[in-house]
Design a protein that fits this description.
Shape: rod-shaped
Distance between the termini: 92 Å
Number of strands: 7
Strand content: 5-15%
Helix content: 40-55%
Structural class: alpha+beta
Radius of gyration: 38 Å
Order of helices and strands: HEEEEHEEEHHHHHHHHHHHHHHHHHH
Number of helices: 20
Length: 381
């Protein structure tokens, strides 16, 4: 079925709220509610209609240029003849605006809205919720076309209601989105389309988020986008091991400037159960991923994330850690490496002590011996 226009470009409506009634009356020269006046264009092709309509106790002003071909019963001669009776109907899919009055230099009269029974029944035939007269009134003003609604249902759009269709009529480009999203295998709820568009996401960008593997609804994807977390970053994080549903973790890593390859490298180290919090802490402390790899692979006893942070904070190089693990005294743990390094004990001294053939000394005795210029002390058994 060919697509119809959801909003006729020749019908730019200006709708003013009822709270401005007094000002509208003054500006329209006293045009009363339920009244109209018109001006025939010099080319005779369009009529500028000004109408004030009653709707649920409110008065709505509509100013629009209507092609004369859309005005049933229009006769240019009668319309321009002073005192001539005028009865025309501006038919819209959802209903008609029936105008009675007299012609002349300033044709004017009364106007009423007649809801379309056929539109109402066709709408219900599509399995949609019943429409009230107020819905049809607003749909007529907005230029909602039945063919478009039928196309929406055919395209698979779900959860349709009057408000969504009215918004679509005022934003015809959204229909392109509906078709594009369907073609990309994405959900096509109209409310989702409006939300995505309002936040500057294109159909392609939305698809990229869906294909990243993230477990998120439309609002959550919009939040990621608004916070600058693009789909490629999300995809890389998930491939690096971040859980698909951990949106808070994804946002936190992004906010702290943690690159996805940093997350991946930490994940391939021997440091287990790091989690987003741990990775963020390592990154914020300036601990490089190579440092984490080297320390965890050094053989040092009981290396933990906290231990790595402390080693890094004390400026203990990864090579020094490895020497402590291979030749050091004591338990050859994080505390030993930090104390030896803070005391200035050289790696050459550690190697020499280990190759001396003596029983393994304690960290304390090694530090004392180093302080005495390398003099050996009695090791603890």
């Amino acid at each position: 079925m060919p697509m119809g226009r959801t909003w006729d470009p020749t019908v730019p409506a200006i709708i003013l709220a009822c709270g401005l009634v007094a000002g509208v009356v003054a500006s329209t020269g006293g045009l009363e509610p339920g009244g109209w006046r018109g001006t025939l264009a010099t080319n005779g092709q369009t009529v500028r209609l000004e109408m004030r309509l009653d709707q649920r106790g409110s008065h709505i002003r509509l100013t629009t240029d209507v092609p004369t071909g859309e005005l049933e019963g229009f006769d240019a001669a009668s319309f321009s003849k002073s005192g001539a009776p005028v009865r025309i109907a501006w038919k819209r899919d959802a209903g008609s605006f029936v105008l009675d009055g007299t012609g002349g230099r300033h044709p004017a009269g009364s106007v009423r809205f007649e809801p379309s029974a056929s539109f109402r029944e066709s709408w219900r035939g599509l399995g949609l919720e019943p429409l009230g007269d107020g819905d049809l009134f607003t749909m007529a003003i907005s230029g909602v076309q039945l063919a478009v609604v039928q196309d929406l249902v055919a395209e698979g759009a779900d959860h349709l209601d009057a408000g969504d269709v009215i918004e679509l009529a005022r934003d015809p480009d959204a229909m392109r989105w509906v078709k594009e999203l369907k073609g990309r295998g994405a959900p096509i709820r109209l409310r989702d389309v409006f939300l995505l568009r309002n936040h500057g996401l294109s159909p392609g960008t939305y698809r990229d988020y869906l294909q990243s593997g993230v477990e998120a609804d439309v609002e959550e994807i919009v939040r990621l986008h608004d916070r600058g977390v693009d789909a490629a970053y999300v995809k890389d994080l998930l491939q690096a091991g971040v859980r698909a549903h951990d949106l808070e973790g994804i946002e936190r890593l992004h906010a702290h400037g943690v690159a996805a390859d940093y997350v991946a490298r930490i994940g391939t180290s021997e440091l287990r159960e790091t989690g987003v919090d741990g990775i963020t802490r390592l990154h914020d402390q300036g601990v490089g991923d190579d440092y984490v790899h080297d320390v965890t692979a050094s053989g040092l006893t009981g290396v933990t994330l906290e231990g790595i942070v402390r080693l890094h904070a004390h400026g203990v190089p990864a090579d020094y850690v490895r020497i402590v693990a291979d030749y050091g005294p004591g338990d050859r743990a994080v505390d030993d490496a930090i104390r030896l390094h803070d005391s200035g004990v050289s790696t050459e001294f550690l190697r020499s002590r280990a190759s001396s053939g003596t029983a393994r000394p304690t960290t304390e005795s090694t530090i004392r011996s180093w302080a005495r210029g390398g003099e050996d002390s009695t090791p603890n058994p």
